[in-house]
Batch of 2 targets.
Target 1
Amino acid sequence: MKFSVSVVAATLFLESALATPGDEKRLQSKQLRHAILRSNLLKHADALVEHARLSNGSRAFGSKGHNATVDYIKRKLDATGYYDTELQTFVYPFSDGTANFTAKEKKYSTEWFTYGPAGNVTAPVVVVNELGCEKANFLATVEGNIALIKRGSCEFGLKIALAGAAGASGAIIYNNADGPIGGGTLIKPSRPDVGPYVPAGSISGVDGVALIASIASGEVVGNIYVDATNEDRYTSNVLATTKLGDKKNVIMAGGHTDSVPAGPGINDDGSGSMGLLEIALQLPKWSVKNAVRFGFWTAEEYGLVGSEHWVVSLTAEQISDIALYLNADMIASPNFGYFIYDGDGNAFNITGPAGSDHIEHLFESYFKDAGLVSAPTEFDGRSDYGPFLDAGVPSGGLFTGAEGLKTEQQAKWWGGSAGVAYDPNYHQAGDVKSNLNVGAWIQCTKGFAHAIATYANDLKGIPRGGKRDAAKKRQISHDRRRNSACNHKLHGL
Ligand SMILES: [Zn+2]
């Protein structure tokens, strides 16, 4: 509807008496929260379900399903005309596979290593000395045989490459604790400076010790069968920045667009990425004082690859222009909790850059005002906020839980089942739409809407000015992080 000239004039007159012109369109928390509708979130979930169908039920980075999700986000954002959008495209090595180890008729429970090569090897199993972190640990008897190596002290990738260098035909790493390793990565796609990777898998500590005892009393021939895909894939981050607002004080929010190969990832992280997308699609109804930027990250499941790639591409000035970063990764867990990243460090003793405390407290009062209990969760950089922490950007976010088990107390607070994982389908084929807790999803999405609207208006409590040292802590954190991604354990050593 168009206003007549006289109505516009009267409106402007009223506004000049009350506030600066344009303020009636200024973003407010309450209005943005009210614009978040269940029906729209569920439509996005339906779209992700369709995307996953394109690649056998997965949206792993660089797959058809994942590319469809990236296109969907970009297209929706472009259609608003409210954002400058950008695809940041790069190549990254993809890897997925399974490993099986059998010896003496026993089929071992075997885990595959990310970046482990495919192959089918039958040979005697030979025990490697010490921890297999040095060339000298591999005796000549290893040649042509399967090297059995104990976990510990150095990266799995180094052990497997040293086994290859010694001429082993395959390698098995057994855990240095009773149970299984619980998912491992060779970290680097190859190590030409050390040696070739050989078909490999890992077994539990109990199985490893028993196998060594068996070898001591006579030759044990084993078979390793690894089915794996290792290939370079093009993939993209999507960045969208409001055309309006102060670009020297950017409010950022991000979530990851990829799933693990095992499933469609509708909670992890369909919930976070689509919650933020819906906020981004409602935001154009208002104007913002500070610019708002959304980051939709690729390949989080391979070690925060997309977010790291983007943050590292920034100049020191571009980093200091980012006032804060909000991360949304898993916000619709079926057996959910309302967890807030512990930015002030008072619960887990890992404190974020100054201002992270303010973000945590803002989320705390959001839940309190809604009459809900919230709890802190460790601020350890195991999702896409890691690279922002390294760059010194105040960060925060919400999380409804992954493989951790709900306590009795938490079941009293939030309902659901004590002694059961917050998301029993975490990183599995069962991470589907029907397993989402939509109520938690809406509540958390509105929490992000509240934080975005609040900070887009007013950065009180967030330190501004002064350059941040982007590189200082990066290596330390990177080493810490690459042993675990996406709130799950993907061990590198
Ligand atoms: Zn995730």
Target 2
Amino acid sequence: MTNLRQQALDSIRQANHLVFLTGAGVSTPSGVPDYRSLSGVYTKTGMAQPEYLLSHTCFLREQDLFYQFVKQLYHPQARPNSVHLKMAQLEKEKPDTWVISQNIDQLHRKAGSQQVVDFHGSLYDVYCSKCYQQVDAWTYLEDNQHAGCGGILRPNIVLYEEGLEEMAIYQSQQVLKAADVIVIAGTSFKVSPFCQLIYYKSPDSQVIVVNQDDVYLSVPYTMIQEDVVSFFKDI
Ligand SMILES: [Zn+2]
């Protein structure tokens, strides 16, 4: 383990084309709970599954339930943590460093990362589902109805049953093809199609997984079963 850990740290330091694939575990140290833990209060009642609360069907049929749940996902006071900051610093040192994130909280950008693919969209990009005008997130947090046209507002996040942005997929494929080191951090890497991105990697690239819980991949990888904060402080 110690040896593998050292080798993983060396690989990241020596990488020329570095890609981070990040998930909820990178945001929890900033005090952003993942949606599954937040959905507990709804699922306890037996009324709704976490996937339903963030589905297109829920948005269409139960606007209030959807709105009440989504509002809880906003943590505008959250600040980037040492993991976000380390990734941003690595981008300064190695210009071909990218982050592809499942997180919708914009913390990578707040940390200073510029090459970020928001694979599941962003909570801070809100628009009207009727007239498509953009409004700021603060307006949405006060009311989910668009004052301009009466349409229902929503954040530009990818809901269950909805397709991904073509651009996010294309960009992810391109940066993964070019990567020599890929680091999967703070995610169980089970959510599809995010987890399928790994198939776009070049055969020569090295994959390192840093996560508290074990992760299974069908490509060769180095597993570092460790808290992301403790690992990233040693890079
Ligand atoms: Zn509108």
